[in-house]
């Protein structure tokens, strides 16, 4: 058992039901009238905006424990620096280099893999808590969700150190669930242009955004303790460059519509530098 995150917190991990502000976000009792109304309101928000943002989802005392655990685990982040287009695809030489698919964005982000998230940590307890999984499914309109089976990517934590950023892109996965734990000293804003994938004017909008047009860009405030359920395949988004000594810490909770889903080994190699199946995995240290 890896209890380093708990040691780093200096406090015992907390049960998930006590982490979530259930008065504000009644997700543990979906059969109650309040729970049903809350789910419905969140579902409508997601359909309208392409995301559902819940500030104050985590109670302040639990937020402190989660954030301290997270800070204690950043040494286990693997850092990935690359360039990509907004579709995360290889550029087809048959398409014009100045077209949207030929434009390069820059990403520099670290990630702490699931097998470095403490077995008894608060974050892992939250991820393994069924009411959260079921609530996310209700917001997304999925009859049933399953936790990811990926040994590294099921529940990981993004670490943006000084200079870290995630360039404009659409996600490969339909949706993403993140938890805002620690804001950086400056930068690190989450910006998005909702639900433009597949629109007739998609390429024109993407091109304008890449040219710096801010007309359609929405900036999401970073409020620690916020849960974000986000339809990243339809919505162009980025994290702006982080500045300062304090890293931006955001766990990513992954779910799928079928049991047993994993990332490909190539994706694991890219984001964590290994496949997660090694007998004696190389420990990958943060190079902040
Ligand atoms: Fe993304």
CATH arch. level architecture: Sandwich
Largest β sheet strand count, sense and barrel closure: 11 strands, antiparallel
Output the number of helix runs.
Answer: 8
The averaged pLDDT comes out at 90
Distinct ligands: fe (ii) ion
Instruction: Give the total of beta strands.
Output: 15
Measured distance between first and last alpha carbons: 27 Å
Poorly predicted segments: 1-9, 280-288
What is the strand content?
15-25%
Instruction: Give the topology string: H per helix, E per strand.
Output: HHHEHEEHHEEEEEEHEEEEEEH
Shape annotation:
globular
- Rg estimate, integer Å: 19 Å
Could you name the CATH class? Mainly Beta
Global structural class: alpha+beta
How many domains in all? 1
CATH topology: Jelly Rolls
Give the proportion of residues in helices: 25-40%
Q: Can you identify the CATH superfamily?
A: q2cbj1_9rhob like domain
Overview of this protein structure:
- The protein has 288 residues and is of the alpha+beta class.
- The chain has one domain: Jelly Rolls, CATH 2.60.120.620.
- It is built from eight helices and 15 strands.
- The strands form three sheets. Strands 1, 2, 3, 5, 6, 7, 9, 10, 11, 12 and 14 form an eleven-stranded antiparallel β-sheet that branches.
- Helix 3 (33-49) crosses helix 6 (130-140).
- The longest helix has 17 residues, at 33-49.
- The radius of gyration is 19 Å and the shape is globular.
- Residues 1-9 and 280-288 have low confidence and may be disordered.
- Bound molecules: fe (ii) ion.
- Residues 169, 171, 232, 237 line the site of fe (ii) ion.
């Amino acid at each position: 058992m890896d209890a380093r995150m708990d040691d780093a917190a200096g406090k015992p991990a907390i049960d998930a039901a006590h982490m979530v502000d259930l008065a504000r976000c009644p997700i543990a009792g979906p059969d109650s009238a309040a729970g049903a109304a809350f789910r419905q309101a969140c579902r409508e928000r997601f359909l309208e905006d392409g995301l559902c943002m819940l500030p104050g989802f985590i109670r302040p005392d639990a937020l402190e424990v989660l954030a301290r655990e997270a800070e204690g685990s950043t040494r286990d982040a693997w850092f990935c620096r690359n360039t990509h287009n907004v579709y995360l695809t290889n550029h087809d030489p048959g398409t014009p280099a100045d077209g949207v698919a030929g434009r390069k964005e820059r990403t520099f982000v670290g990630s702490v893999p699931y097998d470095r998230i403490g077995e008894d940590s608060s974050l892992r307890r939250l991820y393994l808590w069924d009411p959260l999984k079921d609530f996310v499914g209700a917001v997304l309109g999925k009859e049933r969700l399953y936790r990811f089976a990926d040994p590294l990517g099921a529940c990981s934590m993004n670490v943006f150190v000084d200079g870290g950023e995630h360039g404009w892109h659409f996600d490969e996965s339909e949706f993403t669930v993140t938890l805002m734990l620690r804001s950086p000293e400056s930068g690190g804003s989450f910006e998005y242009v909702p639900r433009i994938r597949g629109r007739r004017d998609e390429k024109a909008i993407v091109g304008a955004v890449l040219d710096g047009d801010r007309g359609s860009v929405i900036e999401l405030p970073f409020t620690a303790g916020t849960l974000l359920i986000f339809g990243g395949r339809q919505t162009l988004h980025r994290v702006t460059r982080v500045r300062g000594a304090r890293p931006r810490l955001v766990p990513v909770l992954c779910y799928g519509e079928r049991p047993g889903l994993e990332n490909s080994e190539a994706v694991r190699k890219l984001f964590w530098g290994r496949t997660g199946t090694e007998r004696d995995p190389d420990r990958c240290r943060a190079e902040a």
